[in-house]
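Thread: quick sanity check before group meeting

JM: Hey all, I'm pulling together slides for Thursday and realized we never actually wrote out the predicted structure for the chain we discussed last week. Dropping the sequence here so it's in one place. If anyone has concerns about the input, flag it before I start.
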Amino acid sequence: MHRAKDKRRGLWKSAVQPLSGLPNFAGETADANGNIGSSFTGYNYDIENRLIQPGSASIGYAYDPGNKRLWRGDTSQGIDEIDFWGGNNKMATYQLSTAIIPGGIGQPSTYAVIFSLQTTNVHFAGKLVSKGTQSAGNGQDWCSLTPVTSDRLGSIGKFYPFGQERPSATTNDTEKFTGYYRDASTGLDYADQRYHQPGTGRFLTPDPLVASAKPEDPGSWNRYEYVGGDPVNSTDPSGLEPEPPPRDTMIYIPSPVQRGQIQVQPGPRSLSMITQSATTKVRSSTTTISTLFLLIIARRRRLQMNSIFRWNGF
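JM (edit): ok, ran it. Output follows.
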């Protein structure tokens, strides 16, 4: 038995689950720690219950101390990638390669590791809004950004409730269901702290926090379940904690607010869009806020937004 530190509450807990050798789904079995696929599909897990080799000797993963996946390799596809993270957002992916640099006269050749940018991600309020690829020409080097359109759950594309793509699968190795990165080699969704198996409504490894199984909520006794069986109204960005999807709310302020505060409190019902403009002068300054646009887009029917403006110094 080993013990690991839970990322949510800083508690130490046992990660051992009493599922070893028992049938699970479609004939699969779990190991002594409850990790699915260890014997049926040949998945290999490390001591921290992280998937490091998903069924093929040509595929491998590596992680940082916070369980962020930093490296992904697949020798059969020529993949040797490193990911760079900013908090919980993946910022860029680089392909690694080597090159031989000839030495000078009487000098030996040297080897160099080359980092080639594959993709770069742009996030706003924690949501992926565009992806970029490297472009070069005329002696210049830049990134070409392409906007990303996602639904209210953060999914890029069309999916059935538990992640199966519809009407048919498209190319993987990109962000898809609720923003999870779907690996082409396995078809699994990398869900930050665990792996999600599309179409099954579950993760491959059990929830490590024993206290999350509550007597008053029998559904929580299933240690593998995805968002408590409610994929329409919940997401799980970290793979550890279901949460409601963010509201489609955008506030646009074209000029700086130096001494003001804006508070927006949603009510139970209202308009689908409110556009409000105001011209306000700050007493203690000659600065005039010429225009203030508050744009709130709510996709829920009859969602009422009560806007409360409180300005300090008036």
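AS: nice. The chain has two domains: 3-229, 260-311. The mean pLDDT is 75.
JM: adding both to the slides.
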